Sequence to fold (73 residues):
Amino acid sequence: MGDMIKINQNNCIKCGICEYECPKVFFVPEESEAVIVEEYRQNSEDIGEVSEEISCVKDAVDACPVNVIRIKE
Fold:
């Protein structure tokens, strides 16, 4: 089991910082809110699960200017 990730897409400002910090997990399509890449998605594009070994997820959480990414361990 890994960490569960949730993106609050309603408040996402589409800045792309999460993708810059952790492109392995996050993607910001043009003119759209951030999503979790398909490999790590759980039932929807805003919920995922990643191994705790992918440390860049925490970097993306810390860098998000509007704090819309949450990690639940």
Summary: The domain at 3-72 is CATH 3.30.70.20 (Alpha-Beta Plaits). The CA atoms of residues 35 and 42 lie 11 Å apart.
